[in-house]
Each structure stands twice: as structure tokens, then as C-alpha cells.
Design goal:
207 residues; alpha+beta; 23% strand; 17% helix; 4-stranded mixed β-sheet; single chain
Length: 207
């Protein structure tokens, strides 16, 4: 059976060291001023405590970015990953604004869209994504959802993790967060370029 990758994130372990951001940026040659992943701080209660929420492309099962692409440059690839064929990409940005997680950006030099792909080149070599391998507190754990004995499946069986979805559109993301995560005002509603809000049905019109 083909692998289906997922990441579980225990936000309570994140110490905001930013090692994952730096590792990703170096590994994938992400240009200055842009990021494939992120850490969102969020003050809790009386603001004496801050929780950190790591994130990246959610590798959704029903991705709005794929539905929004007019040239099929974005598609579901091996391992359930959402990938970009940069030879096909025309840099229109439809997928950038369609993503409820704001996980995409236009590469300023290549004039194409870029995003996290779980370090697909590392996965192909039997290695973990740079962010997963680098984290000193093992906040992110990668695994195969199609393997019942994988660590991610063992964690998910405990019913301690949830998926973050937009209330208007469930793209069925494959990143899971610890239930105790104090979720931020995120994800956003998908839009067209220019900030025009669209209904979830819009992204389903493409066949």
C-alpha cells in the first residue's frame, strides 16, 4: 500500500527556538523574506504564558489550492503530498489565496509558487523533513497513516490530536495538533486574488 504522510504536532513541546524555520530555509533554499513553515505565538490567559503553534502546508486530502489552479500545476502526488510542477506553474497566485492556511508564496526570482512539500527529496532518500529532524524537543512527528503500527497512528489512536479546519471549508488536512493547543484565529477563508471572498463551492467547480 502506498504511503500517506502526516505530521502530528505537540505544541506544548515547542520552545520557539526557530530551528525548524532555519533548517527548512537552508534545506530548500527559500529566498530571504519568505518561509515554507512558521511558528505563531499566542499569549494564553493573563499573557504570562505563551504557547507556540508551528505550522506548514497541511498536505490536505481535499486541497482548495489544487481546485484553484487553472493549469494543473498543483496536484496530489506520491505519499499524499500536495506538490507543484514548477514547469507548469504560471505564477497566477490563485493557489496562494485559495489556501486557508496561507502556506504558499510566489518565489520572487523564479516567478512561480513555492511551499512546503515535507522535503519530498529527503523522504525519497529515506530521511525525515528538515524541520522534523532538527527540532530539539521533537514537537513534530512524521509518519505513515497507512501503516497501523506507525508512531503517528499510535498517537492518533489516543484521541489527543485534532485537525485545524476552516469553519466554511474542510480541506481534510494531514497535520494534527495536540488538543490542548490554544488555536489562533486561523485558518482564513479562501479568497481570489484581490481579497474577494469565495464560497467553498467555488473551489469544487474545477474537474
Amino acid at each position: 500500500m502506498q504511503k500517506k504522510y502526516a505530521i502530528v504536532i505537540d505544541t506544548l513541546n515547542c520552545i520557539d527556538c526557530k530551528a525548524c524555520l532555519i533548517a527548512c530555509k537552508v534545506e530548500n533554499k527559500v529566498p530571504e523574506g519568505f518561509w515554507r513553515n512558521w511558528i505563531k505565538p499566542n499569549a494564553i490567559g493573563n499573557a504570562l504564558k505563551t504557547q507556540y503553534q508551528p505550522g506548514q502546508c497541511m498536505q490536505c486530502d481535499d486541497p482548495s489550492c489544487v481546485a484553484a489552479c487553472p493549469v494543473d500545476a498543483t496536484f496530489k502526488g506520491k505519499g499524499g503530498l500536495v506538490v507543484i510542477d514548477q514547469e507548469k506553474c504560471i505564477g497566477c497566485g490563485n493557489c496562494v489565496t485559495a489556501c486557508p492556511y496561507e502556506a504558499r508564496y510566489r518565489h520572487p526570482e523564479k516567478s512561480v509558487v513555492d511551499k512546503c512539500d515535507f522535503c519530498a527529496h529527503r523522504l525519497a532518500a529515506g530521511e525525515e523533513p528538515a524541520c522534523v529532524e532538527t527540532c530539539p524537543t521533537k514537537t513534530r512527528i512524521l509518519g505513515n497513516l497507512n501503516d497501523p503500527d506507525s508512531k503517528v497512528n499510535q498517537l492518533l489512536k489516543r484521541n489527543e490530536y485534532v485537525r485545524i479546519t476552516n469553519p466554511l471549508i474542510n480541506t481534510q488536512p494531514n497535520i494534527y495538533y495536540k488538543k490542548e493547543t490554544d488555536l489562533l484565529h486561523w485558518p482564513k477563508e479562501p479568497t481570489l486574488p484581490g481579497g474577494i471572498h469565495m464560497s467553498p463551492q467555488f473551489w469544487k467547480t474545477k474537474t
